[in-house]
Amino acid sequence: MKSDTEIRSAICDFFVENFLMGEGTLAVRDDESLLEAGIIDSTGMLEMVMFLEQHFGLKVEDRELVPENLDSLANLVQFVGRKLRAAR
Amino acid sequence: MLLDNSLRDSAARHPDKEALICGSRRATYGELDASVNALANALREFGLNRQDRVVIYFDNSVEVVQGIFGAMRASGVFVPVNPQVKGDKLAFILKDCQARVLITGVRNLRGIERELAECPDLRDVILVDGDAAAAAPEAAVLTAASKRVHSLAALLANFPTTAPVNPNISLDLASLIYTSGSTGVPKGVMLTHLNMVTAVTSLTTYLRNVPDDIILSALPLSFDYGLYQVLMAVRFGGTVVLEKQFVYPYKYIELITRERVTGLPIVPTITAILLNLKDLEQHDFSSVRYVTNTAQALPVHHIRRMRQVMPNARIYSMYGLTECKRVAYLPPELIDKKPTSVGIAIPNTEVWIEDEQGNRITTPGQPGELIVRGAHVMVGYWNRPEETARYLRPGRWPYERELRTGDLFRQDEDGHLYFISRKDDLIKTAGERVGPRDVENVLYELEAVKEAAVIGVPDDVLGSAIKAFLALRDGASLTEAEVIKHCQQRLERFKVPKHVAFLPELPKTNTGKISKKGLS
To answer: Which residues in chain A have Cβ-Cβ distances shorter than 8 Å to B251?
Structure first.
């Protein structure tokens, strides 16, 4: 079972690698909107969902494509943690 | 008639009606009009002269709309720039149009402050989401270069909300909208108040807009399709639900239902995501009266599904270009019969297709370049007389000029128009025109690249997808990921190649030039 810290760091690595082109660190607060911060757009969103499914081996349902699950680091960590626990 | 007068008129008619809904913010016509006056008074105070350019570089928001109307009301010219544009291109545009004022956000300034500091005509930077303290390191660089940094909120609070005197007439410029050219250098499309009012009037006529229309727009205001959603609604006194981007499909659907949205401007990337949702039929789309699509043809299977999901909606397939906003639309009653046609000229516009010798083509099926005549046709490209002469040519009568679209069309026996392809090598992708040179120049920045060529390849959703062909220097190595990463750093997202192919050598013509024909 992955801890929240592990989940968070995997997601941060993905952002840095894919949206910041591997440079610098993620200058975003945990509760900050990734959309507002310009980290993610509609294409990036689809890439991120694919990453979550592959990396964590979970299935993101259509219904779950909402900002409450995906629009901040904190929401993402919570969402992934919840999905992983439910899958056990 | 000035474009910004429509805001004053709508505010006078119904000050308490909602003009914009943006996240949790709901701005009435009265509030919007008053804030626009305050901003215009501030711009005047800063020394903005008649027809001076104001660049707006920020995501969709109430503040961007304030900037657009504020610039016009101060008798200036608004220049909307996509916030995805990188610092070097923004600086190019600021210098090219000698902008006096930049309206942007704290975060957008990061990393580009030195480039801004070197724009000689730029005097004032207005921050929509903070003050100089919030952007301290960047603001210090700007201040050192004698640029003043202001907070929009403070300006709105401190300047009078009465309208300043505006000497503009409808021949004056309302906007400069930058588009990609085949030379790789962006060109500013000069649009007068007359151009834009003419376009707004034509569009709202065939879309049959009424004051209780509520438009949901997730298209950027820097893109004329997105910009006109607001310009049209302000004109007919409707409401725009303004989203930053189309990211969360269920949020979009929820907004349609909750706000009882009647007008849905879309692009194929939006329908591709929406139509993928398994439970789409279970949502209530009964409020939607019309759906519009432009910039890229909607695939026929999208049209068929949209007809099932939104049976009450008229679906408009349209075609246009920034140089005149819009050219043609398919009357919605023909959508099932002619789903691949963009129909007929919009009201108050004349179009025809002609062959290489300039003869009008009337034979069905025969391809030719589409030519446009109308009061919405731009007056030219800013400071680009040669480019202007290439696209605007003397008309049939001595008092006018006609627009060459550079797009090949054919017509059927009823005179309905069908887009075939571009005449030049511009790539139409995701609703944008991309000059291959733009991308090739960036590819050549890579040490390892010996030859680079970029073409468009068919893509169901994007229309065309950008494909780069590269030949590397002897002994050099480069991966697809490295190429894409470099392009992402240097280009707007829609210009980044989707595909990269490596060849030992690129095909050449007899004269030794890279042959794009040989690639496709």
So the answer is: 66-67
Please tell me the class of the A4-87 domain: mainly alpha
3-state secondary structure B195-217: HHHHHHHHHHHHCCCCCCCEEEE
pLDDT of residue B458: 87
pLDDT at A21 over 60: no
In the predicted model, what is the mean pLDDT of chain B? 94
Which sign, positive or negative, has the C-alpha torsion B63, B65, B68, B70? Answer: negative
The H-or-E segment that residue B142 falls in is helix B136-144
Q: Does A4 touch chain B (CB under 8 A)?
A: no
> CB–CB of B174/B376 below 8 Å?
no
Q: Is A70 on the interface with B (CB under 8 A)?
A: yes
Look at A65 and B493 and tell me if their CB atoms are within 8 Å: no
Could you read off the pLDDT of B416-432 as tens digits, one per residue? 999 988 888 888 887 77
| B225 domain-assigned | no
Contact B186, B178 (CB under 8 A): yes
Domain for residue B513, yes or no?
A: no
SS3 content of chain B, % helix, strand, coil (to 5): 30, 25, 40
**Residue B49's domain spans which residues?**
5-16+28-191
Q: What is the CATH number of the domain that holds B304?
A: 3.40.50.12780
Domain final residue, candidates B390, B422, B454 = B422
Instruction: Confirm or reject contact between B493 and chain A (CB < 8 A).
Output: yes
In a domain, B217, yes or no: no
**Which amino acid, A65?**
L
Q: Where are the domains of chain A?
A: 4-87
Cβ within 8 Å, pair A70-B107? no
> What confidence tens digit (pLDDT) does each residue in B69-114 have?
999 999 999 999 999 898 999 999 999 999 999 999 999 998 899 9
B250/A35 CB distance under 8 A: no
Q: How far is B488 from chain A (nearest CA, A)?
A: 8
Cβ–Cβ below 8 Å for B245 and A42:
yes
B288 in the same domain as B147: no
Whether B246 contacts chain A with CB within 8 A: yes
CA angle A54, B479, B427 (to 5 degrees): 90
| Minimum Cα–Cα distance from A18: chain B residue | B485
Closest CA to B454 of B491, B404, B420: B491
A36 contacts in chain B (CB < 8 Å)? 244
Domain assignment present for residue B22? The answer is no
Rounded to the nearest angstrom, the minimum Cα separation between B500 and chain A is 17
What are the DSSP E strand ranges found in B417-516?
Answer: 417-422, 427-429, 432-434, 449-459, 463-472, 499-502
ipTM above 0.95 for this complex: no
Q: Do B404 and B482 fall within a single domain? A: no
- Domain end marker among B191, B222, B255: B191
B382 shares its domain with B435: no
Q: Is residue B397 domain-shared with residue B317, that is, in the same domain?
A: yes
